[in-house]
């Protein structure tokens, strides 16, 4: 019997890499080094996708979009998130809500949060009120505090249609 509510947790980390664009939640953030990764390295969307896939016990993004597959080199994480939404829809679920947090000392995220929420909502065919994106620093502690990279965490709730 299908469960009426499913919850999943996602976490991702990427190191900074000069010369790459910084893309978070599908938003290009100017004036800062980007993130190293096989795709566009959108750490926020990667955490969101993992939370959604986890909610349905469908593995993780590495299983669906392996970094050993050349077709995902430089892939747009918005398109990958759209694919994950299709899997959710095919399984007979819809988005209840997504709550995500970006952990980064820099750059400042506040000016970009609204656009990130709107992008994620559009990919997931959800209302923006169902998508929460927050940001925090680690007070100069750890790899994010030393500005070596960015981490993101997400929790997703899916509801049976």
UniProtKB/TrEMBL annotation:
<feature type="binding site">
    <location>
        <begin position="38"/>
        <end position="39"/>
    </location>
    <ligand>
        <name>4-CDP-2-C-methyl-D-erythritol 2-phosphate</name>
    </ligand>
</feature>
<keyword id="KW-0456">Lyase</keyword>
<feature type="domain" description="2-C-methyl-D-erythritol 2,4-cyclodiphosphate synthase">
    <location>
        <begin position="5"/>
        <end position="158"/>
    </location>
</feature>
<protein>
    <recommendedName>
        <fullName>2-C-methyl-D-erythritol 2,4-cyclodiphosphate synthase</fullName>
        <ecNumber>4.6.1.12</ecNumber>
    </recommendedName>
</protein>
<feature type="binding site">
    <location>
        <begin position="104"/>
        <end position="110"/>
    </location>
    <ligand>
        <name>4-CDP-2-C-methyl-D-erythritol 2-phosphate</name>
    </ligand>
</feature>
<dbReference type="Pfam" id="PF02542">
    <property type="entry name" value="YgbB"/>
</dbReference>
<feature type="binding site">
    <location>
        <begin position="12"/>
        <end position="14"/>
    </location>
    <ligand>
        <name>4-CDP-2-C-methyl-D-erythritol 2-phosphate</name>
    </ligand>
</feature>
<dbReference type="GO" id="GO:0008685">
    <property type="term" value="F:2-C-methyl-D-erythritol 2,4-cyclodiphosphate synthase activity"/>
</dbReference>
<feature type="binding site">
    <location>
        <position position="12"/>
    </location>
    <ligand>
        <name>a divalent metal cation</name>
    </ligand>
</feature>
<dbReference type="InterPro" id="IPR003526">
    <property type="entry name" value="MECDP_synthase"/>
</dbReference>
<comment type="pathway">
    <text>Isoprenoid biosynthesis; isopentenyl diphosphate biosynthesis via DXP pathway; isopentenyl diphosphate from 1-deoxy-D-xylulose 5-phosphate: step 4/6.</text>
</comment>
<dbReference type="InterPro" id="IPR036571">
    <property type="entry name" value="MECDP_synthase_sf"/>
</dbReference>
<feature type="binding site">
    <location>
        <begin position="65"/>
        <end position="69"/>
    </location>
    <ligand>
        <name>4-CDP-2-C-methyl-D-erythritol 2-phosphate</name>
    </ligand>
</feature>
<feature type="binding site">
    <location>
        <begin position="60"/>
        <end position="62"/>
    </location>
    <ligand>
        <name>4-CDP-2-C-methyl-D-erythritol 2-phosphate</name>
    </ligand>
</feature>
<feature type="binding site">
    <location>
        <position position="46"/>
    </location>
    <ligand>
        <name>a divalent metal cation</name>
    </ligand>
</feature>
<comment type="function">
    <text>Involved in the biosynthesis of isopentenyl diphosphate (IPP) and dimethylallyl diphosphate (DMAPP), two major building blocks of isoprenoid compounds. Catalyzes the conversion of 4-diphosphocytidyl-2-C-methyl-D-erythritol 2-phosphate (CDP-ME2P) to 2-C-methyl-D-erythritol 2,4-cyclodiphosphate (ME-CPP) with a corresponding release of cytidine 5-monophosphate (CMP).</text>
</comment>
<comment type="similarity">
    <text>Belongs to the IspF family.</text>
</comment>
<feature type="binding site">
    <location>
        <position position="146"/>
    </location>
    <ligand>
        <name>4-CDP-2-C-methyl-D-erythritol 2-phosphate</name>
    </ligand>
</feature>
<feature type="binding site">
    <location>
        <position position="143"/>
    </location>
    <ligand>
        <name>4-CDP-2-C-methyl-D-erythritol 2-phosphate</name>
    </ligand>
</feature>
<feature type="binding site">
    <location>
        <position position="14"/>
    </location>
    <ligand>
        <name>a divalent metal cation</name>
    </ligand>
</feature>
<dbReference type="GO" id="GO:0019288">
    <property type="term" value="P:isopentenyl diphosphate biosynthetic process, methylerythritol 4-phosphate pathway"/>
</dbReference>
<keyword id="KW-0414">Isoprene biosynthesis</keyword>
<feature type="site" description="Transition state stabilizer">
    <location>
        <position position="137"/>
    </location>
</feature>
<feature type="site" description="Transition state stabilizer">
    <location>
        <position position="38"/>
    </location>
</feature>
<feature type="binding site">
    <location>
        <begin position="136"/>
        <end position="139"/>
    </location>
    <ligand>
        <name>4-CDP-2-C-methyl-D-erythritol 2-phosphate</name>
    </ligand>
</feature>
<comment type="subunit">
    <text>Homotrimer.</text>
</comment>
<dbReference type="GO" id="GO:0016114">
    <property type="term" value="P:terpenoid biosynthetic process"/>
</dbReference>
<keyword id="KW-0479">Metal-binding</keyword>
<dbReference type="InterPro" id="IPR020555">
    <property type="entry name" value="MECDP_synthase_CS"/>
</dbReference>
<dbReference type="GO" id="GO:0046872">
    <property type="term" value="F:metal ion binding"/>
</dbReference>
